[in-house]
Amino acid sequence: MEDEENIEEELFLVESQLHDIQGQIKTLLDRQEELYERQLQLKALLEVSKMSRNKSNYGSSVTLEDWSGSFPWDSQADDTRFNVFGITSYRSNQREIINTVMSGKDVLVIMAAGGGKSLCYQLPAVLCNGIALVVSPLLSLIQDQVMGLAALGIPAYMLTSTTNKEVEKFIYRALDKGEGELKILYVTPEKISKSKRFMSKLEKCHHAGRLSLVAVDEAHCCSQWGHDFRPDYKNLGILKIQFPSVPMIALTATATSKVQMDLIEMLHIPKCVKFVSTVNRPNLFYKVYEKSPVGKVVIDEIANFISESYPNNESGIVYCFSRRECEQVAKELCDRGISAEHYHADMDIIAREKIHMRWSQGKSQVIVGTVAFGMGINKPDVRFVIHHSLSKSMETYYQESGRAGRDGLSSECVLYYRPGDVPRQSSMVFYENCGLQNLYDIVRYCQSKRSCRRGAFFQHFGEALQDCNGMCDNCASSIELKEIDATSYSNKDVDLKREEIEQLIVQLILDHVLKEEFQHTAYSTNAYVTLGPLWKPALQGNRPVKLEIAVESSQDRGGGGRLSKGAKRSWMSDLEAKLDELRRELSSSSSNRGISIFPHAVLSSEQISLLSCQKPTTEAELEKVIGKVKTEKYGGRIIELMRSYVTDARAGNGADASKRNKKDKDVVCGE
Ligand SMILES: Nc1ncnc2c1ncn2[C@@H]1O[C@H](COP(=O)(O)OP(=O)(O)OP(=O)(O)O)[C@@H](O)[C@H]1O
Ligand SMILES: [Mg+2]
Questions:
Q1: Mean pLDDT of 190-202
Q2: ipTM > 0.85 (yes/no)
Q3: Looking at the CA of 92, which ligand is closest?
Q4: Ligand 1 pocket test: which of 251, 277, 283, 407 has the largest number of ligand atoms within 8 Å of its C-beta?
Q5: I want to staple 429 with a disulfide (CB 3.0 to 4.6 A). Which of 69, 245, 435, 580 is the partner?
Q6: Is there a contact between 481 and 548 (Cβ–Cβ < 8 Å)?
Q7: pTM here?
Q8: What family name appears in the similarity comment (predicted)?
């Protein structure tokens, strides 16, 4: 009997040592992986540095310049910015980038989603003589841009598989002979790599000195290290080889240093001037909501949130984990009166396009999508992005939530988190390189009730911390928290609520006291929890495990009522709602070369806010708000609406005034 106990004891000891060793092996393997990755990075860096040294030896070294200084084109650029693009002032780095391109340099732009990258090549394209070539990966992105430019009266065209023969002829004549009006030409990368005819016309255009610049949008698609590699982007290096004197501008929203080096090498722009902007999106309010284990309750909450916070059909996206979940959530939101449609990769491309189009035109309010609803979403006025389930990494969450508020106005990013969702994701990502590590980073983000959400992004992208300004739930929250040392809880029977126990288990996994293991069955992969590498010190009390628990855990669960202090409501005033209606009407009645114009191309949400503040009633006043081109096109109808509104208000119809008092405005009017 005693013998048996001894054997059992030793067996336990051996098993625990084996566990320890397995943990150490895993740590070493992870480290090996990191070192391999760093080795590759350093080799690439060396290569790029050698290349630029060799080039500068030939006498054309880069001098440091002040790109924000004065340049000969300043006044013309300001005039075009305001009167053609209707943009009041530049955003961070735009002016410098435009000056660099105008100076004939190659440029690499890394700027967050919605930062305003398009203007950085569109404005120089308008200012320069000749034709600018823009390479963009998706038809939908191209259509959206061409339509937006056409609405501004800029002669932009696209040459893709959908271009009809007549337009193609027009484009070829413009390239070949300089006939007709063509300022910006959009193509997909396949045109460069597959159409000899197109390339020969482009060469003619260049030889005649009519190719003003080349822009490569979504440039991360060049790199296989990026998240959206497109094989045809690999061949874009030919552009710099064929047109070495034409400035190239490569633009992307996210690029790690490895991707950046890859881009520079592939596009042959070793001497490019690089502009890296912050990843911060100050207008986005980040929050994590506790997700109920009951599916219907979650949908009720989402539906309440949308209908209370966004009663004027403001656009949003709900991201779901699976295709089935996507369809179900869309249906249940519809049952609750929200106009929602689902979108996933199982649907055919035409159905997907239709849904995307209806949403872009404001005919449906919400798209419930899987990750397939990704690049190509160019809608600037998405007011909320809700994650019904956890994303698989901080990077994916940053990108998906970042589709909100590209117009710079306040928008919300809500993630519904419940520890029970972790194994669903972990059993999908554990075989990916660093998959679990990436997942645990976002889980850490969700578990924390104290740390700034925005701070987690700065940390993830290796950027210095910036002030959150109360624009996340944790920074804005006044809920009292207690931090308990969960070490004692992890080895005793204690009185924790079910959700808190789940939260504790996940915390123990994050702290390596427990770990997930995976087993395949014929139909699925199951995640199990076993002892992790640090179970012993935790059990011995040498390693504290901290768990943050809300003292007052009965949070207000009522939809819009859950907005923490600091979050901005986006209710529209009466006048804004009228202007919104007008832009929809004007967009559906105007079309350009058969492509209908989106409402935001008629008036941006920022312009609507400014108009409702300043209430211009003459053409001259209106021009000061939205610029010349839009005043000429839509001025009549806008002034008509403004005048009747102002007359009504003077006659004592104070409905709007009383409503506006309730509002928390996004845009502050002033000089
Ligand atoms: N200086 C500015 N002032 C106000 N609005 C601007 C300014 N620059 C750009 N915008 C607007 O911001 C929105 C987003 O711009 P844009 O499409 O160029 O973003 P992006 O950086 O290309 O983002 P993404 O990576 O998502 O493609 C557009 O509606 C654009 O008109
Ligand atoms: Mg863009």
A1: 92
A2: yes
A3: 1
A4: 407
A5: 435
A6: yes
A7: 0.77
A8: Belongs to the helicase family. RecQ subfamily.
